[in-house]
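Known limitations

Files may contain more than one protein. Parsers should not assume a single record per file. Below, a two-record file is shown to illustrate correct handling: read the sequence, read the token line, then continue until end of file.
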Amino acid sequence: MALGPPNQPPRPQFTPISAEGARMSVLLWGGSGCGKTTLCATAPMECVWIQFDPNGVNSLTNYPHLEKIHKIDLVPHTPNTLYFEFQNDDPFSIKAKIKQHPAIRTMIVDSATMMAEKVLEVAVTRAGGTSTFDVPGINGWAVRNQMMRRMVSKLMQIAAAHDLHFILTTHEHETLKEGGGIQSVTLSLSQNLANEVSLRFSEVWHMEDVDGVRMIYTRPYVNYKPMKTRMFLAPDNVVGGKFRITYDADAWTGDGIAEWWQRWMDNKGKKIPLPKGGVQK
């Protein structure tokens, strides 16, 4: 009997459409201190928390279920170590650690902003020429973006292979007009990288905190973008498809990401209304 070429992946099988959407991929972005970290802690638990931000989990010290958060702290590692680890199939033994905890349902990466700062250092070295950390130049930015794509893709692949939800946080960046005023507010990444990264996610939410009122925006509005959603209905009369987060991060009570996702799944992957009590017209 003739054999096919060696090392070929199995032939793709027909998959019912209803099987899609079993996992979330969420890109959550917003200003520093707006509550991204505590919102991430409302995701389906248990989780593996990939930490690039030195202060990333400080706001979770009173979280009542800390035993359900399995942190992999990449803050102490040098940019060179990050670069070489992410050439491997299992960087920092993330896969092995997930296998040790079969109850893990979500991977959280906090944050892309700090990840980008880390890899820029090694990027300018590899770019060579006149590229420096302060003035990376075209080559420095290109190498950094290439490294970021590889790292984000690798982490998303690991999450998919273990059937985990994937949440990536990043800060926001304001671009100012020449005469003053804000021209745009977007991800704290280069424009090309921001566009490429956001395309990989089914949910891209902007988060803000104004005088203690925390909001999620699911559609672009004014000069804020990108945002998109497959989970929520965003009526035209609700600017930016926004809703107020009613989750209490002090008492750790109320609805969060896990509840939103469950409603979406209960609705068989069809879009659900914005959370009750949170719509702002």
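...continuing to the second record:
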Amino acid sequence: MSRALSVYTVLRVARVVGPTLTDAITGRGGRANQDRRLREFGRAVVDRARIQLTVRGADEVPRDRAFVYMSNHQSHIDIPVLYASVPSETLRMVAKTELFRVPLFGRAMRIGNMIEVDRSDRASAVESLRRASALIADGVSVWIAPEGSRSRTGELGPLKKGGFYLARDTVTPIVPVAISGTYAVLPPGTIDMVRDVPVEVVFGPPIPVEGRRIEELMDEVGAFFAANVQPRGEIRR
């Protein structure tokens, strides 16, 4: 296990945060620069950790429109892995409000159009979904983990409805994403990362949402996770 690798990951985050804040001050940059930095961050972490990344189904996801990506959530490492593998050029996250309270980091997240959700405040959560709707209307794909928080055991948790309402109300297809292996890269309760871990990301075909019931959509995404997320999130080869 490597604490130095975790420090490297934090420094790579800083290489996204610093230029984003500078762009805001100077009025330069823009979405394309943010997209590039996020992809570079994801690939750099995957490469440095020597993650044995396998991606399936990405070629079946069209690149010419916005989607609501929904994945299971095993680890903080889900984020760089997703940015290293997602087919859409522009992707922004729905993240818990606590992250936005971190000095500089939280400011950069707001500038970068990440979506803050305070699950303890229903009115705030509704407003967050409105902001996400505006991003989707502008062609930006949105990632949300419908379990709501990281798994502490590697097992799948129950799904929450908010992201499904976002997809249905904006008539935006859902792309289900099954992530396996990241639980072993950064196990819960430690800040030490593990190298050379096999990780698999499976993108499902877009799920149409128009005229569908929320429960029906939840069942379909849940079934995709159950079929494609490896037991305890581990890849066995």
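Parsers that stop after the first record will miss the second one. For reference, the second record is described as follows. The first helix runs from residue 3 to 26.
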